[in-house]
Amino acid sequence: MAAPLKNALDYLSAEWAYKPVGLVTYGGISGGTRAAHQIRQVVSVLKMIPVPEAVALPMVFTQIVDGEFLPTDGNVAAANLMLDELDKVSAALAPLRVGV
């Protein structure tokens, strides 16, 4: 995990406690899957709740044409699933955030 990301998670952990986390990763063939596993462990300890749905973008640079990211139908479907889950989990966690 990059040091600036870990620093941001630590620094804002109180503000982000009891909030859901959705991950969008990119990389080589695995699309950042190993990085997502690391981040899930860290955010869980900081009282953030990672949702299982995620968006992985393997070989993402092949989807950038003339400086613009062109998502596939699979990318869009994964993002919609993740956003729907974030909405549900956020509503369920709302009572825990009162007075935090």
The tally of structural domains comes to 1
Topology order in helix (H) and strand (E) letters: HHEHEEEH
Based on secondary structure, the structural category is alpha+beta
Distance between the termini: 27 Å
User: What is the second-level CATH architecture?
Assistant: 3-Layer(aba) Sandwich
The coarse overall form would be globular
CATH superfamily: Flavodoxin domain
According to DSSP, the number of beta strands is 4
Under CATH at level 1, the class stands as Alpha Beta
Global mean pLDDT? 94
Strand content bin: 15-25%
Strand line-up in the sheet with most strands? 1-2
Q: Give the uncertain stretches in residue-range form.
A: none
Instruction: Give the proportion of residues in helices.
Output: 40-55%
Reported for the largest beta sheet, the result is:
2 strands, parallel
CATH structural fold name: Rossmann fold
Query: How many alpha or pi helices?
Result: 4
Radius of gyration: 15 Å
Describe the structure in your own words.
The protein is of the alpha+beta class. It has a single domain (3-97), classed as Flavodoxin domain (Rossmann fold, 3-Layer(aba) Sandwich), CATH 3.40.50.360. 51% of the residues lie in helices and 22% in strands. It contains 4 helices and 4 strands. It has helices at 3-11, 13-16, 33-45, 73-97; strands at 20-27, 49-58, 64-65, 68-69. The strands form 2 sheets. Strands 1-2 form a two-stranded parallel sheet. Helix 3 links the parallel strand 1 and strand 2. The chain is globular, with a radius of gyration of 15 Å. The mean pLDDT is 94.
